[in-house]
Design goal:
247 residues; alpha/beta; four-stranded mixed sheet; two-stranded parallel sheet; 9 helices; 43% helix; 12% strand; globular; Glyco_trans_2-like; transmembrane; glycosyltransferase; Nucleotide-diphossugar_trans
Length: 247
């Protein structure tokens, strides 16, 4: 995945003198040598602007993504799962669609989507319980107010800098369900959102437990709803406070 990413970004840099990039790898306190591999890769690819953020304590997916984004310095900020399930060059599609919707405040969110794959053989042949949980999840999202995004969980999302920092400075959820809070915050700030189809394939080795994580996600959804409804979680507009600068 890292090689595919670098190849694409280097090709863009070579064809556009105004293009630059950085890659931030967040190692969420893993024990699989991720940080060492990334640092070795950086040493042998000195032309690549690669940073490694190693967390001392596991923060779960949402916490790791949040820390990575808050360290980013680009005009656009993309977070992408490291399993390579999404074709990285689809970044260009997200960027193109994002540029069409950016608001005068500089807000914009492009959401990679696998919704176009929902009728493919791989999805149709999934177990009854998996499809039941998927449809139940969508119904809960409808209640929460997320009604236009068909695929909220794809790990391929692109933000303008102002959108990313205003969202992720307000994040609370650190588990798998963090994408929902991201979209709820985007809606709160009236950020334009576009859903873009991406090339995606199933990758073996998922750490998600169907029943256990479904229950945890349901609990987290309830926590999100209650904390915002009761005003326990406060939302700050960092843009209006002058704490966000374009890089």
């Amino acid at each position: 995945m890292l090689e595919e990413t670098v190849e694409h970004l280097e090709n863009r840099k070579n064809s556009d003198k105004n293009f630059s990039y950085e890659i931030i790898i967040v190692d969420d306190a893993s024990n699989d040598g991720t940080s060492n591999y990334a640092l070795d890769f950086s040493k042998s690819n000195k032309n690549v602007e690669l940073k490694v953020l190693t967390l001392e304590k596991n923060r779960k997916k949402g916490g790791a993504v949040t820390q990575g984004i808050l360290c980013a310095s680009g005009k656009y900020i993309l977070f992408v799962d490291a399993d390579g399930a999404t074709k990285f060059s689809d970044l260009d599609c997200l960027e193109r669609e994002l540029n069409k919707i950016i608001s005068k405040e500089g807000y914009g969110v492009a959401v990679g989507s696998r919704a176009h794959l929902v009728k493919t053989e791989a999805v149709v042949k999934r177990s009854f319980i998996r499809n039941f949980l998927m449809h139940s999840f969508h119904k809960v999202l409808y209640i929460l107010g997320i009604r236009t995004i068909k695929d909220t969980q794809c790990g391929f999302k692109l933000f303008t800098r102002k959108a990313a920092l205003n969202i992720f400075n307000n994040m609370h959820v650190e588990g798998w369900i963090f994408d929902i809070e991201v979209l709820l915050l985007a809606k709160y700030f009236n950020m334009p959102i576009v859903e873009v189809s991406v090339t995606w394939h199933e990758v073996d080795g998922s750490k998600v437990s169907l029943i256990k994580d479904s229950i945890k996600m349901a609990i987290d959804l309830s926590i999100i709803r209650l904390n915002y409804f009761l005003g326990i979680w406060k939302i700050k507009d960092y843009n209006s406070l002058g704490k966000i600068k374009n890089e």
